[in-house]
Protein: SDR family oxidoreductase
Organism: Halioxenophilus aromaticivorans
Amino acid sequence: MIAVTGANGQLGQLVLKALQAKTPEETIVGLVRQQKNEEVVTSLGVEARHADYNQPATVRDALIGVTKLLLISSSEVGSRASQHKAVINAAKDSGVELLVYTSLLRADTSPMILAQEHKETEQMIKDSGIQAVILRNGWYTENYTQGAATAVATGAVVGAAGEGRLNTASRVDYAEAAAVVLTTQGHAGKTYELAGDEAYTLADFAAEIARQSGKPVQYQNQSKESYLEFLTTVAGLPQPFAEILADSDACAAEGALADSSKTLSKLIDRPATSLAESISASL
């Protein structure tokens, strides 16, 4: 039995679909933190179970009979470590044999604010003694392409990544990698640094949007501080979230999101989704 946390989320749903293509769906369980979201999972033909990180007993109950668990990192930045700890402890108590965790690219050395809780979680998994696989996912291409239509409308892609090279991949790519690890042998104890095959800058990203849309789009590089102000005042993002995005872009300028290993495409046995394909899908 394979269980997936955050199964109703964007990545979680894609993992369930990828698993269905590789193993009988009756051996798949989708864990959701709020019972109202169970329908999202059951509509995919997968059993849903309630597992609230803040109620450890529900997590232990949800893991009954589960041998492999994919812990998709919580979306609540700042609370991730404690929430992940609840899942790890429940997995140990329930006899889970393999724990797979979605971490961050080079989490152990990354300067990004986001890396700290991933690093803490990796250590907790190691300390638990459970056989594990760490999937250090790079940036989702969707983090940028979700703003493609706005870029066409305004004529600008705004960021603070300078000329930093980005090796991003789509959620579908990362979901397939998780499904491969969960359904094939030989991965226990490994850490995979996962990123897209193609390196590009945000100027390249803007140029590709312009090419596909036929509209003039240029990249406007800003300082970390100016970009933070843009995110809060123009984009209307909450300050804590905006700070994370500004920090991530600034770190990307120094190469934090670049990776030329092509480990992801090797793992899924196909090229990672190209930037052009992702922009096309978004537009």
